[in-house]
Amino acid sequence: MSKLDYKETLNLPRTNFQMKANLVNKEPEILKRWEEQKIYEKTLEYRADAPTYLLHDGPPYANGDIHLGTAMNKVLKDFVTRYKTMRGYRAPYVPGWDTHGLPIEHRVTTMLGDEAKNKTPVEIRRLCKDFALKFVNIQREQFKRLGIKGDWENPYITLDPEYEYHILDVFKTLVEMGNVYRGNKPVYWCPNCRTALAEAEIEYHDHESPSIYVKFQMVEDPKTYIVIWTTTPWTIPANVAIALHPEYTYTKIKVGEEYWIVAEGLLQKFSAETGVHFEVVEKFLGSELEGKLTKHPLYDRTSIVVLADYVTLEDGTGCVHTAPGHGEEDYQTGLKYNLPVLSPVDDEGKFTKEAGKYEGLKIWDANKVIVEDLKNNGALIKYGKVQHSYPHCWRCKGPVMFRATPQWFISVDKNDLRKKVLEQIKNVKWYPAWGENRITAMVQERPDWTISRQRVWGVPIPAVICRHCGEVILDARVIEKFANIVREKGTDAWFEMDVEHFLPEGLTCSKCGGNEFDKTYDTLDVWIDSGCSWEAVVHSKGEKFPVDLYLEGDDQHRGWFQSSIFLSTAKTGVAPFKAVVTHGFIKDEQGRKMSKSLGNVVDPMEIVNKYGADILRLWVASTDFFDNIRVGKNIIEQQVEVYRKLRNTIRYLLSNLYDFTESDLLPYEKLLPLDKWALGRLQKYIEQVTSYYEEFEYSKVYNATVKYCTTELSAIYLDILKDRLYVEAKDSIYRRSAQTVLYYILDALVKILAPIIPFTAEEAYQESPAKRFESVHLEYWPEVRKEFVDDQLLEEFQHLLLVRDDVLKALEEARTSDLIGHSLDAHVYIEPKNEEIAALLKKYEGILDEFFIVSAVTLTDENLEGAVTGQFVDVLVKHADGEKCQRCWKYHPDTGKDEKHPETCPRCSAVLRGERK
RNA sequence: GGGCUCGUAGCUCAGGUGGUCAGAGCGCACGCCUGAUAAGCGUGAGGUCGGAAGUUCGAGUCUUCCCGGGCCCA
Q1: Residue A266: beta bridge partners?
Q2: Which nucleotide is nearest to A823 (CA to C1')?
Q3: Is residue A98 annotated as a catalytic residue, yes or no?
Q4: Are A516 and A466 in contact (CB under 8 A)?
Q5: Nearest-5° Cα angle at A158, A157 to A159
Q6: What is the spatial distance between Cα A722 and Cα A726, in angstroms, rounded to a whole number?
Q7: Mean pLDDT of A274-293
Q8: What is the mean predicted confidence (pLDDT) over A633-660?
Q9: Does the pTM of the predicted model rise above 0.90?
């Protein structure tokens, strides 16, 4: 027989599982098959009676393509649901979208431009809806392409009438509890457009404003004044307080016959700007003045000294004019000190009658008049002008103002709501654990929740206003009536239908007893929308509640987690989730934030279209997502390399099982020692990886799996096995023993990888002899089989592997000196360094040549001349004696002695004769 | 400025309660094989564990401060 003919007698690997993945083309085909086979539906069907594991989806906002952050978020969720499904749970996944709110309304009105003014609210709402649904569809396709398994045909969408009904239902509960109240709060207001503006609708431009220093006389000490500085004289009528920093040093200076109070750090600047000459007479901390009263310079009332951390020493006097009706910080301070919120200004920016003599004046015109008055009564120290950045309206470009307007609030403390929420937080398991501290601190400090918006794209707050006295009434019965109509017609009904349809019988004004009303047109904060999802999607449908898991970015400690836990605690008394996992944010390779201006934005679909979804998913698994994670070309390409390794390992397993089925499995007792070792190691690997999955530690799954495939399988076990798999008789015990273990390894590996790289796992599963279902995603998680673990054997092999390291080093030296090429060229002489090792090697003497992949091994206790000193053994490498067997490439002294097969070693001759089983 | 948080080899990550803990895989360099072949195997070079001080017989591991990044507020 020639060399080539001997090759024909080997059992070389064979498989349809291609080395080249071609994921970009293959993944869509697999997706299509999953859809046709209804795999998602079947996972639920097959587990209909099993316990439920419920991950409730946080709805992304439907106003653009998905970005890498949302992609990662969904992939992580998919890891969870796929894993839990394989663990035997019924684990439904209902994706959702957040569809109301300003960003969409803003985009739509921007696109409309001037035309927006001619549109009715309902027309604008229709456009918003179309806009949102368009992106729901786009995002849905993108998420599906990532391999996210879920009920994509029946997602929850916050603009669905049924969903809107539940928002109103939860809201009604809050109203009934008495936690909803009406109060005043400053918002950006454009007097020209006569509308409230959101932060996002503000543009900053340079603007010239007056700059005035004003002194406030102290009540207790009429010779002493506190000096303030402001660029908005028109807000002086609304002044109720002066804010000082508690820890700054303030000085009392003597100016003429008077004493003025100014922060020490601003004295020079103050003096330079006002030209005032002074003499310091006293110093004290800001905190010492807390509660002192001053006289208002224009009205017969007082302003109180308060303390605030935001006071700086950049401009002014360190004594900040405070008008809670005209500034956000002022408002917050006002809440703390229970100050009145004055805002004597109307929609058009004109003073109302509360402003006294200024009534009817436009605020911009009033500046002059007020400055003049301050000058006349001696309160004005200095008048000047200043150029600074000032907020302007995005639409009319005019300057805007802060103006207190009536808003709806949810009281955080009424009915002990805050306390109950804090209690509930403790019952939740937070991953990572610091999430609990974070949300606890936030809940402890948060102010009441402003829930009204002066916008059209949202769920209307069905409050009515009395036609007679103007009292605004929020009545649970109106909400209920409206909610029931919404269920049929959607929230457009509020804009389209007559108020009478929403009024319960006998509704009268609580103030004047009137019975005629008009609608009001505020809408609800969208955090209420999404914060009700547990009710709309889970609780009201009789699904498992509280759900097992919420999984979102850590910004949601303030956002969705909080709105959800507040609303759920209010209505049901408990948190809506048992556990919360948070992830960090995605940065570029330098750790910088991704932004269009930096040009470092990575598009997830670009990765999918270039490398495949499994590569993107493998990258997600490789990261420590609890913290911020980095991404870029290099990092992704690293995953391509790792993917190749995993794929080739699976491919090699498959290719050596082409002639193997379940019925060929050998019982454990019949396995060869090396195979028992590998099987035991597999159990350890399964056990470890399973615990990682339980704790959402995917990077550890990833690392353990890569290491397992590279070192234990590829470099050791599979390399050693080549001889037996190829050379021994097809159905011999030597080969079947190896194949039995390969079968178990393949089966486990494919399943363990299935949640992470579902496409590749599916492709491999279809070729696997262990296939039992039509899809790997209907499969069950591999069990750890204790009977496959022989701890003593594992321990012994652990030591043999250390000896192997010594042998490999010696072989490498022999290679360098051209003594050998392939390790099979070698005959290795080993001198153990201690008795223990000697005994161990003796025990396994018969398989050492196989284990080291050499032709022969000789154990000796003699001193080996020229040996390489290792850690546990000394090793001498010689070229092997005899001829190289043309079949198995091993050297053997007796090669060539078989008459029929003269070029083969005794073992191969026996195999060829059919004598070796 | 405040609350929380992160900073270990070029990259991605491991390193309970302080004492062989300075590691793994990838990448890289060099070599082997050509019966996993656009594969496989081996050997090797890479880190003062962000910086400084402190507690301790001993600190990536505890404390304080500083530098840099992040989320949320202000």
Answers
A1: none
A2: B32
A3: yes
A4: yes
A5: 95
A6: 6
A7: 86
A8: 96
A9: yes
User: Which of A782, A769, A656, A770 has its CA nearest to residue A719?
Assistant: A656
**Nucleotide nearest to A589 in CA–C1' terms:** B11
Q: Rounded to whole angstroms, what are the CA distances from A488 to A162, A483, A869?
A: 8, 9, 85
The pLDDT of A880-909, averaged and rounded, is 94
Q: Is the CB of A861 under 7 A from strand B?
A: no
Rounded to whole angstroms, how far apart are CA atoms A101 and A527?
9
A631 touches strand B (CB under 7 A): no
* Strand B contacts in A 554-573 (CB under 7 A): 554-555, 557-558
d(CA A879, C1' B43) / Å: 20
Say whether the CB atom of A780 is under 7 angstroms from strand B.
no
- Please confirm, yes or no, whether A59 is among the known catalytic residues: yes
Q: What is the pLDDT of residue A509?
A: 95
User: The tokens of A229 are what?
Assistant: 């500085």
Q: Residue A45 CB closer than 7 angstroms to strand B?
A: no
CA-to-C1' span, A686 to B9 (A): 29
The two tokens of residue A855 are 């032709």
Is A560 known to be catalytic? Answer: yes
Give residue A237's identity as a one-letter amino acid code: P
DSSP, collapsed to helix, strand or coil, labels residue A783 as coil
Token output for A809: 């080093």
Q: Is the CB of A309 under 7 A from strand B?
A: yes
A819 CB-contact burial (10 Å; exposed 0-12 / middle 13-18 / buried 19+): middle
Which residue(s) pair with A875 in the sheet? A830, A868
Torsion angle, alpha carbons of A708, A710, A711, A717, to 10? 90
Nearest nucleotide, CA A582 to C1': B71
**Choice among A260, A527, A534, A677 that is catalytic:** A527
A641 CB inside 7 Å of strand B: yes
Q: Quick one: residue A490, left, alpha or beta (phi over 0 = left, psi -120 to 50 = alpha)?
A: left
Q: Which of residues 750-779 of A touch strand B (CB under 7 A)?
A: none
Confidence of residue A763 (pLDDT cuts 50, 70, 90): very high
Would you state the pLDDT for residue A705?
97
A590 in catalytic set:
no
**Catalytic pick among A59, A95, A399, A832:** A59
DSSP three-state, residue A775: coil
Cα three-residue angle A876-A882-A883, rounded to 5 degrees: 120
| CB of A15 within 7 Å of some strand B atom | no
Beta-carbon contacts of residue A308 (< 8 Å; ≥ 6 apart): A243, A244, A245, A320, A322, A329, A333
* Residue from A433, A438, A427 nearest A695 by CA: A433
A98, A169, A675, A874: the catalytic one is A98
Count CB neighbours of A513 within 10 A: 10
Please tell me whether any atom of strand B lies within 7 Å of the Cβ of A67: no
Distances (CA, A) of A817 to A121, A813, A820, A877, A883: 86, 6, 8, 11, 21
A150-164, A378-392, A770-784, A892-906: least confidently modelled range: A378-392
Chain B bases near protein CB atoms (7 A cut-off): 1, 3-6, 10-14, 24-27, 31-44, 69-74
Say whether the ipTM exceeds 0.90: yes
In 3D space, the residue among A325, A287, A323 whose CA is nearest the CA of residue A306 turns out to be: A287
Q: What average pLDDT is seen over chain A?
A: 93
pLDDT in tens, A765-818: 999 999 999 999 999 999 999 999 999 999 999 999 999 999 999 999 999 999
Determine whether the distance from the CB of A888 to the nearest atom of strand B is below 7 Å.
yes
Q: Which residues pair with A214 in a beta bridge?
A: A228, A380
pLDDT in tens, A381-409: 888 888 888 888 877 788 899 898 899 99
Percent of chain A at pLDDT > 70 equals 99
